[in-house]
Specification:
single chain, alpha/beta, Rossmann fold, 8-stranded mixed beta sheet, 9 helices, 8 strands, about 15% strand
């Protein structure tokens, strides 16, 4: 039977620190809209950054909201890479109020067709993806400008399995979102998760029956930690935003105590 563990998200931070973060954000003028003038509707609002200061030579697409962020979101792209469509999705998340860091796990390569996408997916090295993901989390943990208390990880498509395995060792991530996962993760790794979990997929997804069966194992009491949402076939990535936003907000407002472990059967 699958267990989801809930150990809290460091809610017992001081009010003083929260006020300081808010003042820094407001006074520092950190929004990309202010820096780059890229807030025009339909235009890219993020920018590419290097992550050398956080452990790797990778690059990432960073989107900074115009207001103080609700949370940080680390995004792992699907097999197409960090395409313009992926960037637009991250821009839309930013407009919802999130500080978004999309990791380029394909070293700048993007796919123009399904054959190239399959090649990119086959080229993924598990250890390198895990290292890059750790770098993205470190960015939100130690960046002097973009440090975030609450961080979520959003995995697109083919990265679900390696993401779940990596998150099983994380204690300070508030939630994990799997969007149209193409591989069903190891159930033992799901059992080790210590965070909220949302799975968004369509009935045509290859993993639909696996996740549907898993969903039946959870009681109603588990819904504050586990959420399976079935979307219509052909739903565009941008249409998933409302579900992601609702899940993150639910996790953020859920009262938790540090060290409280809740087992869901």
């Amino acid at each position: 039977m699958v267990n989801i563990w809930n150990v809290g998200n460091r809610w017992e931070r001081t009010v003083a620190r929260s006020l300081i973060v808010g003042l820094v954000w407001a006074i520092g003028g950190l929004s990309l809209g202010a820096q780059e003038g890229k807030t025009t509707e339909g235009k890219q609002i993020g920018e590419l950054i290097f992550l050398r200061d956080y452990g790797t030579d990778d690059i990432a697409y960073l989107v900074v909201p115009e207001q103080q962020p609700l949370a940080g979101v680390v995004v792992l792209p699907d097999k197409e890479g960090v395409t313009e469509r992926t960037k637009k999705f991250c821009d839309a998340l930013g407009k919802k109020g999130y500080l978004v860091l999309c990791l380029d796990i394909y070293n700048g390569r993007t796919a123009k067709n399904e054959a190239e996408a399959a090649q990119l997916a086959d080229s993924l090295k598990k250890t390198l993806v895990e290292k890059t993901l750790a770098t993205g989390l470190k960015f939100f943990e130690s960046s002097p400008r973009f440090q975030m208390e609450q961080v979520f990880v959003l995995s697109l498509g083919v990265t679900a399995e390696v993401t779940v395995e990596s998150m099983a060792r994380q204690k300070n991530v508030a939630g994990l979102i799997l969007m149209n996962p193409q591989n069903f993760p190891d159930k033992e790794k799901l059992d080790d998760l210590r965070m909220g979990l949302q799975v968004l997929l369509t009935q045509e997804a290859g993993t639909f029956s696996d996740f549907k069966s898993l969903d039946l194992e959870f009681s109603e009491a588990s819904r504050k930690l586990w959420e399976l949402r079935i979307l219509e076939n052909g739903t565009k990535p941008e249409a998933y935003l409302d579900s992601v936003h609702a899940f993150i907000n639910r996790v953020l407002v859920e009262p938790r105590r540090e060290g409280l472990i809740e087992k869901i059967f």
